Amino acid sequence: MKTLFRNTGYRLFTTQEENTKKISFSYIKNPDGTIRWFWNSDSSKPLFLKFYNATTPKAKLFEVLVKTVFALRLQKIVFRKEIVYYSKNDDPVFNIEDDWAIFTGTVGPNNKALLLSGRYFYKIAETDSAKKLIAAEHKILSKIISRNKLEVPKALMLNENIIQLSDISNDGIRENSFTQIHADAVMAISAHHNRQTKISDWNYFRNLRIQFSKIEDERIPKNITRKINTILKHIDEQENIEVAFSQGDFTSWNCYVKNEKLAVYDWELSSTEKPKAFDFFHFIIQNGILIQRKSWKEIYAEIKEKNKMTFRFSEEDLLKYLKYYLLTNTLSYLTIYAAQEEWHMQIHWLLQTWNEALNIILKNHSTERELVILDTFDALYHTDYAALKFHNEEPEKLKLNSDIDLIISSDNAQKLVSYLSGHSLVQKVSTVKKSFMQTVRIVTLQNEILNLDLIHQVKWKHIQIMEVSKIIENRRKNRFGVYKVSEKDTARFIDLFYSLNDAEIPETYEKFVSEHLKSNKITDRELTIKTLKMKNENRGFSYFKNIVHYLKDSFAEKGFIITFSGVDGAGKSTVISEVSELIEKRYRRPVKVLRHRPSLLPIMSVWTKGKEKAHEDAVNSLPRQGNNKNSLSSLLRFGYYYTDYILGQFVIYTKYVLRGKIVLYDRYYFDFIADARRSNIQLPKSVTETGYHFLMKPEFNFFLYAAPEKILSRKKELSYHSICDLTSEYSSLFSKLERKNQRVKYLAIENNDLDVTLGTIMNTIITER
Fold first, then answer.
1. Cβ distance 592 to 622 under 8 Å?
2. What's the CATH class of domain 180-362?
3. Residue 407 and residue 422: Cα distance in Å, rounded?
4. Superkingdom of the source (predicted)?
5. Residue ranges of domains in the chain
6. Which of 23, 41, 233, 571 is most buried, with most CB under 10 Å away?
7. What is the tens place of the pLDDT at every residue in 442-471?
8. What is the CATH code of the structural domain delimited by 560-768?
């Protein structure tokens, strides 16, 4: 503060000296405790509000409260103040005893204070880089003339430290939204010095790349650096690009809408070398991040919409110029942030959004799942967490069937889930909360799955087995910026997990565990359990709480039922086997496969032939060979099997669905409607159809069919005409059921290509669940 006032012609003292006068300064602090604004305590006007972007509801409320305080003359009571003493030089820049206010500026190497006094703003630079910036601004403003759509301040360099700028904000308002007035101003600005150049000849971009290559700052998340390097590596140096004049910091807080014009301040970053539309992108992106706190998904949607009122880029050109905006802006600011001692919260906001925005450029080089993995670890970079049993390669190279286990607090887990829910590449996030962890299933726009286990207590059943705080304290960061559970803690966890589950440690882990635990491996399971139960977190009230949580956790996530129907030879068995594996490995849910019905009751012939003989005959006999023509016999047979469905559905629901399992039916009740002959039943279709109304409806029902020729090439159990008739019956039935109940999926799939069939089935399950 003393240096600041010395540059304006005053000297400040904390105690009274000879020839000094007393004055009181009032001030408001930043969240970190540093002073944001200060002013003459005797001021009758809240001039510091000129520095405040009051465009959000919260900001507007603050502005109203401040103005009310000043109107009631309560400012000396409400705001903190400090008494100092001053002396002045012969020709000070402003009158310290009049109305004035100072904004201390944004922390960083380019920091400048901003003074408002009378009809002028004064930028006061203290560092060499800040002095260069105000000199550049004076040079630019001496050449730019206010026009129909644009108004700029008159500038005067008072000395190398101070530039005087006329106040052009009067009668103007700041607008958060990008309006037609902003669009007209942007177009007017970019019309200057518009030229085309090859990337290889673009010196501004080349210099940014050189500066970026020299950055060594552990605070910058690793994956944003890796992303940028990948993009730079694939740039076509012979590509042509338009560069144009830009204001450089075209933001809502630097613009005032007045009389159908846009009054624009802060021209110190203006340049003729930035990519075309730089100011357009900058306004929407910076405003979206810092003021409106939008996700990149929302910001990008606004860019596409506002493009219609400005440059009207084609989709290809919009992506091209957005790419070079993101690169030039990010490279520039990463260099600045690397030189900045203290980072404020806004830097983390900016980096996270820029990082996600870069994915638009990387879609041709990485899958959506890989990009989400990269962004997940960068989002956690400054968070306390540790990845459990995570590989040492690039994080995005995680196998398709592998998940990510993170030791993390429940609060930080929720922040991560909120971030991923708004991610531009994420279609859906499903979460299941348990007492000790949160399971998260992420589905990308292309239906790729990423599973996360966010663990805030390490438990086996109802017993806590390791302390999370110690695991995080012992964590280690690998060269890709991923914080991993230490090798010793990982070995301890593996040993506990398999020993407590009374299982052998897999061969892949055996050497690792022995190497890091040596003689401390568990040899007595019962003694280990007894020892763990003696810990405070597993005793007394905690013990009963853990028991209740364990029982509750057992029913935390319900399963669902999937049925597969179709004639013999349609490929059901193969599809069911593949779907079962995909659900278990990729969808990460346990599976139970049932044949035809719940089987609470045995097949009828068991009562006459015995179990073994009945099953042997059922396996060896061809389908649809029964010759039952009797209605009463058919009704009895149907009633027997229907009883199995009615009673068995509750058993299946309780035993499997309530406990989180996915039940796959190889054939289902639909056979009684479309192909009752298969069960040796001859009844009117209306009877069996009516029975379906009283059953719980499986969530997903797939009818597999194929051309008769293809089915006959697989199995010759049915005639050509039988296959055609049955396919028609099933198709009609599924169409009818779908019309009646839109909440349940009834989908007919032509099973010619197994991969296509599996993709359709899994995409249906993933998007609906």
1. no
2. alpha beta
3. 22
4. Bacteria
5. 2-104, 180-362, 379-553, 560-768
6. 571
7. 999 999 999 999 999 999 999 999 999 999
8. 3.40.50.300
